[in-house]
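Please go through the sequence and fold tokens given here and tell me how the chain folds. Record follows.
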Amino acid sequence: MPEGGGFNFRRKFLFKIHEKVGNVEETQMTAEFNNDVQKYDIYRDSVVKLVELLEAVNQPNPARVECPKDEDPYDKLRKALETFQQFLQEDKAGQVAKICRTLEQAAKTKRDYQIKRRACIRHLRRFDSLEYKLLLENRENFNQAKANMDLAKHEVKQAKTTEQIERRAVLYQQQVEVFDEKCNKFIKLLEELPTIKSLHSKDLTDLVQCSREYHQAMSGVFK
């Protein structure tokens, strides 16, 4: 375990023991650190599933934000009534025409709120492609830096001469500093999860409020 004075990352996340991988002793992270990583991964999987379900409820066609014009069930019902309207008596036809106008407005209102509801969950929708993608990139950098540091330490131990020891010790210290930097960045991203969860919670609150407004608007259309 490196003990260089340049270390400033959170030591609580590192074991002072090593595990051999081949001939190289591998620095092991604490259970606390590994649990934090696992919790982030589990949360990501839950968010992806949640977004899929919310978007399916809002718009069954994942290729569209809102239902295309004339393809909403209200539109289809309106078109069916308009087609049949010619066979009705004049007094009945007038009533059907009024219903058709209501259905047209209902379809428009529904499309408007499909767009609004999707906007409500923007942080949830972007989590996988923004925050989680950044975490994966930093995790890869962290793992590579850790492997490089462990290998550099192994090479110091394998040195046969004073000159080799001094040269390899310098390289090892450089790898320690790189690991320090990558570890700090990775841990910082892990620690941002509570803030991210708060944003996601607000998304859901906004979605519920928007859904409430949608039903109120539809109630006004059909009154």
Remarks:
- Helices lie at 31-58, 73-84, 90-120, 122-127, 131-158, 162-191, 193-221.
- The mean pLDDT is 90.
- Residues 74 and 103 are 5 Å apart (CA to CA).
- The chain has one domain: 5-222.
